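Thread amino acids onto this structure.
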């Protein structure tokens, strides 16, 4: 017999899905109206005055007024916000700064406004409700849910609360989920990731877990700790565990390891949150890709990846996108980010409705020899290889070896196996064949004897974990880039060689 909470969750799911279907069917219209609304609201800000927002009448004007930029391009405005100034990028002051790493000038401080905070929260809710509506599986609403995330402890920058996105979001869990949510606040505040995982395992191992969410490598660590403590598969330990929500990296390379750890099938929902805004979520178990959140405070623009390094590459709106093309995604948000390149590349797999997949990172590639190998290519090559040369991959990283002591240069793959292939040499041959089939430039370099066959370096157990610990980025939302165009990461990983 269903509880009142499960019955209400199904009605709520139906209501939200019906409401969302309206904007899915009129996505281009919603995007056009959103562009005008964003410009109108920000026209009297410092940025709006500097860029003559009052003269913007259409998308053509918009592109002329606002250049494509990144954090460095907006930094002078964000620095004003950090000093406490108002009406800089968006009316008023931000209510939060989402602090992330990774720029040439240190940490990024991404503003979150009163208008944008709900846009970080609602799509996550809608992803779960879309799943409930489609599957009628309401049991996940009455059990315990865990969201592996960063610490909710926040600091202040000129009076503005500052922390990691997952920590900020932890303060806005809906009241109707608070009794379901784990871990406890005190456990969530533990700063050291290894201690935090131990505490989470102790808190959850005897609970009725129905939903588990997080970045795959950190959820994998949680599962491994649980199995070590209880000597049970996750599916046996949590018989009511029905849904895994994930994002941040491509899940396919982890799939076999998760299947082994869980011991049975569990439904999955992919989400695409970023510090700059929630971009997309999987709204169907039957259709490929994630629905683009076109009615969620973000006006999207797109540039074909192949044209990005050209002078004045063409920018297009949602109305002109095509299937199967690699696009750099550009955001304009109700937090005051304008023409903002987050560095991700996406592809549309459906235009009715608009569904996408993440195809890679603009800055995460290997092209030391002009091959421009991207994440999607290496991930698919690895997936295809393990089908022919059975193995389980825990994590990997690819970097160029430009000046080896002997012979031709090559690609060096650092792989931590959960289960190693029978013959590493055969695995290397197959992996190289697969990568050649995905990237014609790489194939030409191999056949032209500019490069030699790739090399796999096997890392010892917990090699990637040790590396992340050494650089102070263990846990939370942190993840090792899959590709690099230099040896910065590789030279550290080589120390973890088996």
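Threaded sequence (498 positions):
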């Amino acid at each position: 017999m269903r509880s009142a909470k499960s019955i209400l969750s199904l009605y709520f799911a139906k209501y939200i899905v019906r409401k969302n279907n309206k904007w899915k069917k009129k996505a281009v219209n919603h995007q056009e109206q959103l562009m005008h609304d964003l410009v109108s609201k920000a026209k009297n800000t410092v940025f709006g005055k500097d860029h003559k927002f009052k003269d913007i009448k259409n998308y053509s004007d918009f592109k002329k007024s606002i250049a494509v930029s990144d954090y460095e391009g907006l930094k002078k405005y964000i620095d004003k916000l950090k000093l406490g100034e108002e009406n800089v990028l968006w009316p008023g002051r931000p209510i939060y700064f989402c602090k992330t790493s990774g720029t040439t000038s240190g940490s990024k401080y991404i503003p979150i406004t009163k208008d944008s905070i709900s846009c970080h929260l609602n799509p996550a809710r809608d992803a779960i409700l879309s799943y409930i509506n489609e599957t009628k599986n309401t049991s996940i609403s009455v059990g315990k849910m865990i969201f592996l995330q960063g610490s909710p402890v926040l600091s202040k920058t000129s009076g503005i609360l500052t922390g990691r996105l997952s920590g900020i979001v932890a303060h806005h869990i809906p009241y109707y989920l608070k009794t379901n949510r784990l871990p406890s606040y005190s456990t969530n505040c533990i700063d050291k990731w290894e201690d935090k995982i131990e505490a989470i395992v102790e808190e959850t191992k005897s609970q009725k877990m129905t939903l588990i969410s997080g970045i795959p490598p950190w959820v994998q660590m949680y599962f491994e700790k649980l199995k070590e403590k209880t000597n049970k598969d996750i599916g046996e330990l949590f018989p009511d565990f029905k849904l895994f929500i994930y994002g941040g990296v491509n899940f396919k390379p982890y799939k076999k390891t998760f299947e082994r750890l869980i011991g049975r099938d569990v439904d999955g929902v992919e989400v695409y949150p970023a510090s700059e805004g929630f971009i997309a979520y999987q709204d169907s178990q039957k259709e490929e890709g994630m629905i683009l959140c076109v009615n969620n405070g973000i006006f999207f623009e797109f540039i074909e990846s192949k044209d990005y390094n050209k002078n004045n590459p063409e920018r297009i709106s949602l109305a002109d996108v095509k299937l199967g093309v690699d696009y750099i995604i550009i955001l304009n948000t109700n937090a005051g980010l304008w023409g903002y390149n987050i560095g991700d590349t996406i592809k549309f797999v459906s235009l009715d409705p608009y569904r996408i997949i993440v195809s890679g990172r603009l800055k995460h590639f290997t092209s030391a020899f002009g091959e421009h190998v991207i994440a999607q290519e290496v991930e698919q090559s690895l997936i295809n290889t393990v089908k022919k040369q059975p193995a389980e991959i825990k994590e990997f990283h690819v970097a160029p070896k430009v000046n080896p002591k002997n012979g031709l240069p090559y690609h060096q793959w650092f792989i931590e196996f959960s289960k190693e292939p029978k013959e590493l040499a055969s695995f290397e041959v197959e992996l190289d064949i697969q990568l050649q089939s995905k990237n014609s430039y790489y194939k030409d370099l191999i056949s032209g004897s500019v490069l030699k066959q790739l090399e796999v370096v096997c890392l010892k157990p917990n090699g990637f974990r040790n590396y992340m610990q050494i650089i102070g980025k263990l846990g939370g939302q942190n993840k090792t880039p899959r590709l690099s165009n230099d040896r910065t990461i590789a030279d550290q990983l080589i120390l973890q060689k088996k």
